Amino acid sequence: MSNVTLEQARKIVADALAKGRDMGLNPLTVAVLDSTGNLKALEREDGAANMRPDIAIGKAHGAISMGLGSRALYDRAQVDPTFIQAMNSLAHGSLVPVAGGVLIKDADGAIIGACGITGDSSDNDETAAVTAIEASGFTAATG
What we know:
By secondary structure, the chain is α+β, with helices and mostly antiparallel strands. It has a single domain (6-141), classed as 2-Layer Sandwich (Beta-Lactamase). It contains 5 helices and 5 strands. It has helices at residues 6-23, 52-66, 70-79, 81-90, 122-135, and strands spanning 29-34, 39-44, 101-105, 111-118, 139-141. Strands 2-1-4-3-5 form a 5-stranded antiparallel beta sheet. Helix 1 (6-23) crosses helix 5 (122-135) and helix 3 packs across helix 4. It is globular.
């Protein structure tokens, strides 16, 4: 199984933070996990609240664990909240089903990681993630 490398993860983090600054977003926290759900890179901008790393990791972790972007998990929670609650229980509370957790896919469509971002609106968090993933030459999957 292929994984996002440390160098690639660091680039995604840097590009996401740059996009956030370009958009004038609140301080962001960006986490990149590999395809096994292990943390590769994390940065929390000055002024970001202390729970932000857990939220960013939770968005990415949920995406990796379920094979769906966290926006799709949010949509599923609207239709079947019991299912998402059960999945969050199985994930020991580390599944955050709101937009901002985006799968990273390689040229063959294989999931190689996920980026989770928090700090601004969920839509803006997701925009920063998608922009950063695509700037690294990967496909961003939100659904």
